[in-house]
């Protein structure tokens, strides 16, 4: 008697075992951002996205309030990458600091960074990060904006000069970091620390759930051993 043939599994579906229901496989997950901080937040959470840079003009939303700007830019970044990767689940993000209803992105120069710190010193602002998730195939869009209050310390002029000379603030919205050289110059935050780095994992989990994807489905295989 010839051996039983193994039933071929449809492409794009997960392997299932006896008693389980066959489920569609989760598509590739793409981060539409060049931010090393956002990538690190995801990797620390057990997710290894593909990175595709959007090259979107970030000046297109000048004049809008900060939350609207980051939301709009996140969608534009996600859409630009989704057009090239329609087979993937694409996440776009954008971050800006709001202080006195003014938006602060990355400083344009070292002098600008010093001036920003003179404005921030001893003050309280809100770091807003816009998120846009675009699904594979049907291109459904889910949006969200998270805000975290940041309380700034009062670094001396020498400390500000040294920090700016390090080069770190030049790559940061608001000219500061929460997880690098700038951390000692902050008094504290109210809200999600990952959002200050550039990506809110709690918000991402809810957005994924809205499109029928569990965040645990994006974990790398080695992360699943902790389940």
Shape: globular
| Class derived from helix and strand content | alpha/beta
What's the total count of β strands? Answer: 7
Percent range for β-strand residues: 15-25%
Low-pLDDT segments: 1-18
The largest pleated sheet is described as: 7 strands, mixed
Order of helices and strands: EHEHEEHEEHEHH
Q: Termini separation (Å)?
A: 42 Å
* Percent helix range: 25-40%
CATH topology-level fold name? Maf protein
Description:
The chain is 28% helix and 21% strand. It has one domain (29-219): Maf protein (Alpha-Beta Complex), CATH 3.90.950.10. By secondary structure, the chain is of the alpha/beta class. It has helices at 36-44, 66-84, 110-120, 157-165, 193-197, 201-210, and strands spanning 29-31, 50-51, 89-99, 102-104, 124-134, 141-152, 186-190. Strands 1, 2, 3, 4, 5, 6 and 7 form a 7-stranded mixed beta sheet that branches. It is globular. It contains 6 helices and 7 strands. The longest helix has 19 residues, at 66-84. Residues 1-18 have low confidence and may be disordered.
